[in-house]
Amino acid sequence: MGLGAFQRLGVKVSQETRPPLYFTSLRWRNSRFELWESHLKRLEKSFLELGLASTEVQDVLERIVAWKHSFWNEKDVAVRIECRLTEDLSGDFRFHTRALDLKALPERVKLSFMPVDKAPYPGGELKVWAYDKIFQDLEKLQAQGFHDVVYLKKNGELLDASTSNICLIQDSVLYASVPGPGVLKGLYLERFLQVAQDLGYTVERRNLYQADVESADSLLLTNCLKGVRLAEGIEKSYDDSLLWKARIDEIERLMHE
Q: How far apart are CA 181 and CA 172, in angstroms?
């Protein structure tokens, strides 16, 4: 794979920056990886788009499938698969996994909203991130008491949070942004919205803006490791918040049956 694949996608790379990263995060629970087939399909699609030969892609996927069998005795663990350029920017991928700590996740997420000149990653169905800026932003904001950051364009249009999709609820309608630059087609959000629709909830895709947050009943963050979490301070009333928490729990239960 050549470095040009990243440059073509508008991801800035140099010797001074952290190499671009492809990663996917999975949750092992109840003796299986959640959304396993969806993760494999996106891995394959992204690797091919980045320029890996089909034989290389099959090799990586076979290693992932073989690695999966080492988790049979685990109860509940979060794992990240990472593939990154080598430090000398030769264009070869590294592949490794590591367990992630899920402890002490806040029940409600305190958000900061940050305007950016350009989306920090391509988005859509291709999950490739240049993480330098995101890590720096999170470090500064967490020191100020925030848990996460939501990026937005200069015109107020919402992009994703650092590692989560966002979804707004207003008048019992679920609103999600259209996938594109800065908005990943997240596997967990897609499944969440599909199950919600199956249960009779109205789901609408459109560009969302900061003004929509101000009028929303709730803001949700969705992530394959952390599930669905409510943003702090967005809900209109405590009773509505409790009602939607119960509905979200029901949707998530059905997602994993």
A: 27
CATH architecture entry for 108-255: Alpha-Beta Barrel (3.20)
The domain ranges of the chain are 4-100, 108-255
Q: How far apart are CA 220 and CA 16, in angstroms?
A: 35
The 3-state DSSP class for residue 59 equals helix
> CB neighbours (10 Å) of residue 119?
16
4-100 CATH fold: D-amino Acid Aminotransferase; Chain A, domain 1 (3.30.470)
Say how many C-beta atoms besides its own lie within 10 A of residue 133's C-beta: 19
Residue 107: both structure tokens together: 């029940």
| Residue 237 burial (C-beta neighbours within 10 Å; 0-12, 13-18, 19+) | exposed
Q: Is residue 167 within 8 Å of 186, Cβ to Cβ?
A: no
The 3-state secondary structure of the chain reads: CCCHHHHHCCCCCCCCCCCCEEEEEEEEECCEECCHHHHHHHHHHHHHHCCCCHHHHHHHHHHHHHHHHHHCCCCEEEEEEEEEECCCCCCCEEEEEEEECCCCCCCEECEEEEECCCCCCCEECECEECCHHHHHHHHHHHHCCCCEEEEECCCCEEEEECCCEEEEEECCEEEECCCECCEECCHHHHHHHHHHHHCCCEEEECCCEHHHHHHCCEEEEEECCCEEEEECCCCCCHHHHHHHHHHHHHHHHHHCC
pLDDT tens readout for residues 110-169 = 999 988 877 666 666 555 555 667 778 888 888 999 999 999 998 999 999 988 999 999
pTM: 0.81
